[in-house]
Each structure stands twice: as structure tokens, then as C-alpha cells.
């Protein structure tokens, strides 16, 4: 099975600066890590490779330092890695990011299955997986919490929907996005780190893609722009409630209901 996993380098801290003109995160010099949700996608690929054999390719998009997450993927068991890196790709919105990734996935070679994490911790849109599949013209399923099995032409999965779990069969080539509880990600291997330290990472620029029209990429090609972006607010506010258990339970219920933490069924 030829599996491609999309991974991303994200800020490792919430203390990031925002470019006041473009409205995008300033990533240079910021402590970074692999997007946590992508670890579950990579682990899913590794489990499928163990069961069915094949090859795992990781594809990322970002500045040159994003090669670090590809190296980390090698240390976990990925076989090949490609980084889409070109200043012309900078400032892309979700739609153009998905389009750029689709061009990179095609340039990386044939695939049977693409696996993406549920979302990224810096954007939290949870849209790239579905949009990537649409640009590639392949079927896709979101919210996958379990892999039931696979054969030469299809994959059977379980989706975690808001009120139900649904078993679905999808024809390959296809794309799935996985939930964070699908598998426990493994730790990087020191042995694999040594074995892959000189493994080549393919760097793809605009000149390497099938579509070389610069107006289709980056900030200039993006049909939407962020009006305002800011780091999440921090709060250390605490409340302490005293009283009998019945009264506290009633108070807690009312609090959760008033703040829309509860969902009414039926």
C-alpha cells in the first residue's frame, strides 16, 4: 500500500507574534513542533504498513526549517519525505494551501491512500483534508476513529459522528482524516534517527509543480484573507463552591447548561 501522510510544523507555544500587515503568524525563530494531530495520522499509516506492507511518504509545506518534522517522521518509520517550500507559497489561505498540497502530492508520486490529521493547532480549520481530496478528485472520509480492514481496492473504516458511529467502505485511491484517539503515537526511534540522518528530503518549489502559475499560490492567490488574528487569551480565574452534594450538583448542572456545554438529545 502506497500511503502519503500530510504533516505540518506548528508553533510549539501560544506566545507567537502576528504580522500586522498580512495577518499571518510570524514563524521565523519560533519554537516549533509537529502538529499533534498529524502524529495520529502518521501512526495510522505505520500500523497499515505493518499489516499490509508498502511505503509511507510524508508531505509538508513550510519554510526550510519545516524539514525538522520530516526528519521526525523518518525517526518514526516514514520512508520518504517532501517539503513544499517557496516564498511564493507564503501567506496562503486554507483553499490555496490545499491546492498547493495537491500539487505537491502529485509531484511526490503515486498513492493509494492519503491520511491527514483532524486539524492543525495553529489554524484549527479542519478543512484542508477535504479540500485536498477535492483538488485531487478522489473520495474522502473525515472523522475516522478506527480502521476495520483493507483489500487491494478499498478501505473499511469507522467514523466518529456527533451522535453515532458509522462503518463505511471507500474505494482507493482515497483520503481519510483521523481522530486523535485512533492509535497512540509511538516515540521517535534513536536507531532510526541514526539510520536516516542522511536520508534525502525532496524540496519542491514552484518550478517543480505541474501548475507553475504563481498567481495560483500564496497570499496573492488566496480568495480569502484573515481580517484579524490574535493569540488565545489566558485566564487563571477560578471558583470554589462549598455546600452539600445535592446543591452542588444542581448548581453545576445549571452552570453547564447556561454556558451551552450540554446538548439536549431527542
Low-confidence blocks of residues: none
Number of domains: 1
User: In sequence order, what are the helices and strands, one letter per element?
Assistant: EEEHEHEHEHEEEEHEHH
Structural class: alpha/beta
Number of helices: 7
At the fold tier of CATH, the topology name is: Rossmann fold
Largest sheet strand order: 9-8-7-10-6-1-4-5-11
Range of strand content: 15-25%
Report on the biggest sheet: 9 strands, mixed
Mean of the pLDDT scores? 90
In terms of topology, how is this protein built?
Layout (H helix, E strand, L loop, with lengths): L1 E5 L2 E3 L20 E3 L1 H17 L2 E7 L5 H10 L3 E5 L9 H15 L4 E5 L10 H9 L3 E11 L3 E7 L4 E7 L2 E5 L11 H6 L6 E3 L13 H4 L23 H14 L8
Parallel strand pairs: 1-4, 1-6, 4-5, 5-11, 6-10, 7-10
Antiparallel strand pairs: 2-3, 7-8, 8-9
Helix pairs in contact: 3-4
Amino acid at each position: 500500500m502506497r500511503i502519503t501522510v500530510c504533516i505540518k510544523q506548528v508553533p510549539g507555544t501560544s506566545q507567537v507574534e502576528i504580522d500586522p500587515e498580512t495577518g499571518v503568524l510570524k514563524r521565523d525563530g519560533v519554537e516549533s513542533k509537529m502538529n499533534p494531530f498529524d502524529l495520529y495520522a502518521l501512526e495510522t499509516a505505520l500500523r497499515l504498513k505493518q499489516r499490509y506492507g508498502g511505503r509511507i511518504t510524508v508531505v509538508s509545506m513550510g519554510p526550510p526549517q519545516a524539514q525538522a518534522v520530516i526528519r521526525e517522521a523518518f525517526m518514526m518509520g516514514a520512508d520518504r519525505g517532501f517539503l513544499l517550500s517557496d516564498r511564493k507559497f507564503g501567506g496562503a489561505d486554507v483553499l490555496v494551501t490545499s491546492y498547493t498540497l495537491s500539487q505537491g502530492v502529485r509531484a511526490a508520486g503515486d498513492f493509494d491512500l492519503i491520511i491527514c490529521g483532524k486539524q492543525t493547532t495553529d489554524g484549527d480549520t479542519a478543512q484542508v483534508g477535504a479540500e485536498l481530496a477535492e483538488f485531487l478528485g478522489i473520495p474522502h472520509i473525515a472523522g475516522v476513529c478506527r480502521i476495520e480492514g483493507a483489500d487491494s481496492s478499498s478501505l473499511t473504516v469507522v467514523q466518529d459522528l456527533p451522535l453515532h458511529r458509522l462503518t463505511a467502505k471507500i474505494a482507493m485511491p482515497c483520503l481519510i482524516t483521523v481522530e486523535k484517539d485512533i492509535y497512540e503515537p509511538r516515540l521517535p526511534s534513536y536507531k532510526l534517527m541514526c539510520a536516516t540522518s542522511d536520508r534525502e528530503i525532496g524540496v519542491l518549489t514552484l518550478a517543480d509543480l505541474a501548475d507553475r502559475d504563481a498567481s495560483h499560490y500564496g497570499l496573492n492567490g488566496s480568495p480569502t484573507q484573515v481580517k484579524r488574528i490574535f493569540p488565545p487569551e489566558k485566564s487563571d480565574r477560578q471558583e470554589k463552591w462549598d455546600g452539600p452534594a445535592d446543591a452542588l450538583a444542581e448548581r453545576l448542572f445549571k452552570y453547564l447548561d447556561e454556558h451551552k456545554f450540554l446538548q439536549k438529545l431527542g
